[in-house]
């Protein structure tokens, strides 16, 4: 018979990740015979659900991120939880804008995005999207596991869907019919008036990528969005004095749920270094000063060196400014 003290000791390690309410409920029920049965069944149900989700992701990562609700094109299921985290932490969507990269180079960067805890990958090149889907699929059963691929581009919808992407970004809404299959739609919004146009055609729309030139414009757009929306803010990276970090924190306070890192991966030597810097700052609320010196593992995501508090000007930006 599993008495109260034994139950508490044996399950301590397994319950550390549970919420306080769940731990309290299980501890309260465990000394009682009926309570023990309920507790065991509850734990079994939670574990079974988690294993089933992990199994589906392992077998078919692309399908795992696809739309699962009855809503027409809305982002739902695991993809929704990635773009709008229950913890309210900002998600990071990493743009890969380097169509000239080889398959090997794309594979390395795709893996780095996963290891940096990037939430999703965005690209405007369909061939790059296909390569990213394949690399992410290779991570099935690993930790961190595959991340969803989001595509935006001027090609036939059916071709985009067949590539294995999880979501499609669209600027002009229209009646998609059955073309989208189970791929979700994210709407690109550049002004408040565009929201009305979207909702006239797709009343279930719940995910929006916002392009803005000022915080006031961002707030004006957000105020028009449906309650509970997934709000993705498009942010230029490598700004002077790393002001994009503080900007992202302000955007979070203004209801942003995700950040799109515009042109984060372009194929240069700073791709990985900046990727880890940005996501680390966003996740851990670090200052906007560069605090990583030395990339000791260009293909495995491990950093080394002595931290500094010196603001970093990125070579990529220097080259652009000098042109």
What does this structure look like?
This protein is of the alpha/beta class and about 325 residues long. The protein has helices spanning about 5-10, 10-15, 20-30, 35-60, 60-65, 75-85, 105-115, 125-135, 155-160, 190-200, 215-220, 245-255, 270-285, 315-320; strands spanning about 90-95, 120-125, 150, 165-170, 185-190, 205-210, 230-235, 260-265. It contains 14 helices and eight strands. β1 (about 90-95), α7 (about 105-115) and β2 form a beta-alpha-beta unit. The longest helix has 27 residues, at about 35-60. The chain is globular and about 70 Å long.
Write the layout of secondary structure elements.
Layout: H1 4-10, H2 12-15, H3 20-29, H4 33-59, H5 61-64, H6 77-83, E1 91-96, H7 103-115, E2 120-123, H8 126-137, E3 149-151, H9 157-162, E4 167-170, E5 184-189, H10 192-201, E6 207-210, H11 215-222, E7 230-236, H12 243-253, E8 258-265, H13 271-284, H14 315-322
Parallel strand pairs: 1-2, 1-8, 2-3, 3-4, 4-5, 5-6, 6-7, 7-8
Helix pairs in contact: 3-4, 7-8
Give keywords:
8 strands; globular; alpha/beta; 323 residues; disordered N terminus; eight-stranded parallel barrel
Q: How much is the radius of gyration in Å?
A: 22 Å
Q: Strand arrangement, largest sheet? A: 1-2-3-4-5-6-7-8
Q: Please report which band the strand proportion falls in: under 5%, 5-15%, 15-25%, 25-35%, 35-45% or over 45%.
A: 5-15%
Task: Specify the structural class.
Answer: alpha/beta
Q: Largest sheet, described in full?
A: 8 strands, parallel, barrel
As a percent range, the share of helical residues equals 40-55%
Count of helical stretches? 14
Report the count of strand segments. 8
Gross morphology is globular
> How confident overall, as mean pLDDT?
80
Element order, helices and strands?
A: HHHHHHEHEHEHEEHEHEHEHH
The N- to C-terminal Cα distance equals 76 Å
Stretches with pLDDT under 50, minimum 5 residues: 1-15, 49-56, 292-310
